[in-house]
Write a structure and sequence with these properties.
This protein has two helices and no strands. It has one domain. With about 60 residues, the protein is mainly alpha-helical. The relative contact order is 0.20. The two termini are about 15 Å apart.
């Protein structure tokens, strides 16, 4: 999932899956560790989106 110079591409399907995961962790009783990992994944993807946008690699 690398894109040469511009870094990782954030796949829309991955964004959708992450959104569903976060919504599910809010609805169900899951361990605090799993909830934290989901939040860290969300933050990492958001950082990747910002880096991609900052390098002219906006949405395709």
């Amino acid at each position: 999932m690398a894109n040469g110079e511009s870094g990782p591409i954030v796949d829309p399907a991955l964004d959708k899956a992450l959104s569903e995961l976060l919504a599910q962790t809010e609805k169900e009783a899951v361990s605090p560790r799993l909830r934290e990992l989901a939040r860290r994944l969300e933050a990492a993807l958001e950082d990747a989106r910002h880096r991609q946008a900052g390098q002219g690699g906006g949405p395709r």
